[in-house]
Amino acid sequence: MTAPLTPPPPPNERPSYQGGPVPPPAGAHAVGAASGGSHDPYGTHGEQDGPGMLTEVRQAAVTAVAVALFGGLLGVLWWKLAPSVPLVGEVVNDSWVVYLKDSEGEQAIGVDGTFTLLALAFGALSGVVVFLLRRRGGVPLVVALGAGGLLGSLLAWRLGVWLGPAQDVIAHAKDVGKGVTFSAPLKLGAKGALLAWSLAALVVHLGLTGLFGPRDPEPDPWPAPGQYPSGPSGPYGGKSV
Q1: Among 14, 73, 196, 233, which is least packed by CB within 10 angstroms?
Q2: Does pTM surpass 0.70?
């Protein structure tokens, strides 16, 4: 005669917790192995790739200063390449009067056009160079590129005016004599040309970033091998009924 066997507990009942470490859920080790051998059971991510915000701001400040300094070269080229506006001085009623020698000439428009074309070329070039040096981009870098272009345009404008003919046209007319043609001072009539550098730089940089910039990897639609438990074990780590 044998003793009766103890019936197994119902499937819905599990033994109560008696203390000690709680075993990890099924598949936790597999997930950790698939994620590069990390022992973090909660899947905490490490530090993100790329420079921090402080480093990006520092790089953006250096970029803005470097771009603005090239405004000196733009100012020299504008002074050299811009057409001269001819003026003539005359004496009327014992007073000097200065007027345009060619009232229908388009030299003044050419001065603004020269500055605008040079600024567009400098903007496109700066956008390409910044993209090649900093492919990761970022909002601080884009803001610095636009601000540097504006500062460079302001520097070029003031430097060209300073290098050009004298601003006091009456004194200049007296120096050269009555009826003698002389050049008018450089003047930027269309102040909107100061934005040409920034606009060209931003358009070129954003276009290159969209076409050739680094892209985030697409998520894998299929789970890695061993990520989910398989086999006879159930969802609670016990044997399936």
Answers
A1: 14
A2: no
Q: Which two tokens stand for residue 45?
A: 């991510």
**H/E element holding 219?**
none
Distance CA 129, CA 141 (A): 12
Distance between CA atoms of 150 and 117, rounded to whole angstroms? 15
Q: Is 8 left (phi over 0), alpha (psi -120 to 50) or beta?
A: beta
Q: What is the DSSP letter of 70?
A: T
Write the pLDDT tens digit of every residue in 93-123: 878 888 788 777 788 899 999 999 999 999 9
C-beta of residue 206 within 8 angstroms of C-beta of residue 130? no
How far, in Å, CA of 10 to CA of 33, rounded? 35
How many CA atoms within 13 Å lie on the side-chain side of 207?
9
Give the span between the Cα atoms of 130 and 49, in whole angstroms: 20
Residues 62, 196: Cα–Cα separation, whole Å: 21
